[in-house]
Amino acid sequence: MSTFLLTESPRDPAQAIYDFILPAGDGWMHEIQRGQTFRIVDLDGNQAVDTLFYSAQDFTDRYSAQDTIREQGGIYLTTGTRLISSEGHVLAEIVADTCGRHDTLGGACAAESNQVRYALDKRWMHSCRDTFMLAMARWGRGVTKCDLTHNINFFMNVPVTPDGKLSFADGVSGSGRYVELRAERDLVCLISNCPQLNNPCNAYNPTPVRLLIWA
Amino acid sequence: MTTEKILFEESLPGGGLWSWTLRRHTTLRLTDLHGGANVGLMAYNADRPLDRLNLPDTLKAQYTARLTRGHVLMSDMGHALLSITADTTGWHDPLGGHGHAALVKGKYGEATYQAVRNEWYRNAHDNFLIELGKQGLGKRDLVANVNFFSRLNVDAEGKMRFHAGNSKAGDVVDLRAEMNVLVVLNTCQHPLDPHPHYAPKPVLLTVRQTPQPGADDFCRNFRAENQRCFTLTERLFPGA
Mean pLDDT of all residues in chain A? Predict the structure, then answer.
């Protein structure tokens, strides 16, 4: 078992300029300005928070999972990870993390991928991509499905074995654990608070998360 | 292979770029001519390109972080794009992505077209954008790519390391189109290839007509997930 480096933040929630509880199954699309600090709190433990970032000035300059893991030389995200864009820019850096490991290989659940993964009759179940689609439709400004790329799953643990297998391991998060990022550009953040009920990524119990922004 | 009609064949030099629409149930063979080749590849439903390769969906449905025979490259709409029907290497990389101009310049220095003509140093990102542009696609359509013939090892801490010698001269991988598939590929070096020089390797591209996969098809039956993916794909071709 690998060791996790946990880093606490000195920031006080009472000083935050934004404080919001996002229920499971809901979406959130919001601007985060350069220099601001953004925290996601796993209120009840083992929730998966599917998250994408875009440069606010240019949506084609967006979070890239492959560029991010390659540039840091490792597949897990934690304190010190710089989120790299498709154009090679640093969008944000993780500056605190009391969970210790976050996934960016597993992507988001979707009605269609649930059919492949579980059963053809699972299509009606709520999914992250449906949440993303609705959040983007409300956001407007020309954003469409082709802007949905491969996301971060905060608080999820998806190890790769030495023989190249992908496993969905028990969560390493817990009630009250959080991850905090400093925006290095003006960003738009898109979140689906995952509603998946078919696998243990949420311990079969999707729960709310708290979103905080400090100036 | 001998009984199947070769539709066409062409070689692609190292650093080269290519895109093509494979008709359903034709097969693209990639042959590593010299050993150590890398083929970065993205794929789209040619009839509806918003339906496109999704590597996270591909990997989690098949519980794998490497690609080899039996695996199916899946779209974000739950469809089968390309089935890996043959593979002599055993491992193709879905994690490493591709390099930009800055990476190539940083690793190998600069060699412009003006200075050295077609010996110039090309990069995978620009090559993808060129071929995507020819198909009416662009930056917003970039997806995570596969790197055929390359391998990364991941250790217990999650660190990734390039595995040298994964592919040798004559190694092949066969990709069977399960719908009409737009493939966009290039032969730039893997971004984590530690080779100190710009030395991308050529590949041979062979397209041949192959039989429609039957009920006993290896890729279809590789996992229950693949069977469901084939079922959803066949619904796109009612009566076919």
Answer: 95
